[in-house]
Amino acid sequence: MPSERDASFTLTSLDEGRSLRLPNLRVTVTPPDRQAVTAPLGLAPLVLGKSPECDLVITDPKVSRVHCEVRLTEDGVLLRDMQSRNGTFIRDIRVVEAFLPPGVQATLGDSTIVVQPSGGAAVLPLSTRGTFGDAVGESLAMRALFARLERVAKTDETILLLGESGTGKEILAHSIHQESRRNQGPYVIVDCGAIPPSTIEAELFGTVPGAATGAVNRAGFFEAAHQGTIFIDEIGELPLEAQQKLLRVIEARTVRRLGSTQERAIDVRIVAATHRNLKAMVAEGKFRQDLYFRLSVLELSVPPLRERREDIPLLVERFLSSRHPPLNTSDLPPETIPMLTGYDWPGNVRELRNVIARLVVFPELLHEILDPLAGPAPEAGSGPPTEGEAAQVDPEDLKLGKLLELSLPEAREAVLAELERKYATAKLRKYDGNISRAAEAMGVSRQLLHRLLDRHGIKAKEGIPENPAPRRA
Questions:
Q1: How do residues 247-280 score in pLDDT, each as one tens digit?
Q2: Which of 94, 134, 186, 466 makes a 20 to 30 Å CA pair with 36?
Q3: Beta bridge partners of 265
């Protein structure tokens, strides 16, 4: 290991694996306007770029929307380029992935980035278990998360789980309920992304006769979760008006059904989750700041699968053992695990589970299933075109002459971005801007489609034809 990597720049396991030494590091980015931005580097990586969804937002026109990430590992601080257009450099050498020595500057566009120690290290407890409820993981990141969950599950405090789609937030939420004193009470799931905005309040708070056409006397999700746990998934999709009413319920611990004047006391433990950057949504006025503070009493980040590749064999074993009849990794071709651990898994654990299901059914198609994973991985939610409706990329639209001036990775990024944009827009047009139907046809979740649309600046209304055909009665 190079001498420039010292203990102040690495994660270190202590006490025979029962605790973790976490150095106190800060990442500082200085853009062309010299207005430096900084953030602490912990167990969760920091994503840098122009997008407001990034952890460190850089105001540099030469920086990509999602440019690179900085991650603390057992071997040092790892700088990873995210297929940026203009590249990431260390000492004038373009890197895809490299360790960043202490105090050495990296370059993104016209901006510089440096990681430096900022005080003494912290010592974090690690779980002695490789499981938490139904969740599994033996990596340092997951054992540190499990240790925190073991402590917070025993409380009644509100929990906010953050992480990419497919990382297992719903499994962790259910495991929190199982490990809590409320485990004999109800466990109620609310998927904000799957409920139409027009009915979300009725679903959450209930109704009384006369509240709306056809309304009946019915309890909402909060009343149904009385003396138990309510899991509010994809809370970043909650409309602003409903956010205000949810805030009142959290503060008062009472709920009022739509159309009623009667307040009903509720005793619920709230666990919320989202793949969105709520801090960025607060800054953009899309999410209430006071609600964010109420939800983030205990805020925990769930690491994506690419940051805990050592857990992949364990997860594969779990998926195989749950089948009927049970299987194990010896039932798969011997080259399977190395191929799986070499992929970035933009769809995370959910994508891995689906791949294993295909391999079990069609083991003879190993390379047909896994070889495409070796190529450049698109962001979660892009998905392959289905039903033979892949959008055709017009070379004129991409200015082929300009493409020839780019490197192969840059040209590939430009072509893929155009394909994704046209494909998503075409699907939305086909389904009159209906996100749910378009996502189903694409074979992805609504949340992943939302991420794709956000990345390309596409609004759902762009999928509504100017002169839509009249619907049949």
A1: 999 999 999 998 888 999 999 999 999 998 898 8
A2: 94
A3: 254
Q: CB atoms < 10 A from the CB of 367, how many? A: 12
DSSP single-letter state for residue 258:
B
- Using CA atoms, how far apart are residues 185 and 231, in angstroms rounded to an integer? 13
| Pairing verdict, β 106-108 and 88-90 | antiparallel
Give exposure, 296-323, as e/b (b: 16+ Cβ within 10 Å). Answer: bebebbbbbbbbbeebbebbbbbbbeee
DSSP 115-165: EEE-SPPEEEE--S-SEETTEE--SHHHHHHHHHHHHHTTS---EEEE--T
CB 88 within 8 A of CB 94: yes
| DSSP notation for 77-100 | EEEEE-S-SS-EEETTEEESEEE-
| Cβ neighbours around 221 below 10 Å, total | 21
The residues pairing with 230 across neighbouring beta strands, listed in sequence order, are 188, 270
Strand partners, 194: none
Cα 59 to its chain centre, rounded Å, is 24
pLDDT digit string (tens) for 53-91? 788 999 999 999 999 999 988 889 999 998 899 999 998
> Would the pTM of this model clear 0.85, i.e. be above it?
no
Q: Which residues pair with 253 in a beta bridge?
A: none
Report residue 108 as tokens.
Answer: 């993104």
- Go through 286-295 and write b for each residue having 16 or more CB atoms within 10 A of its CB, e for each that does not: ebbeebbebb
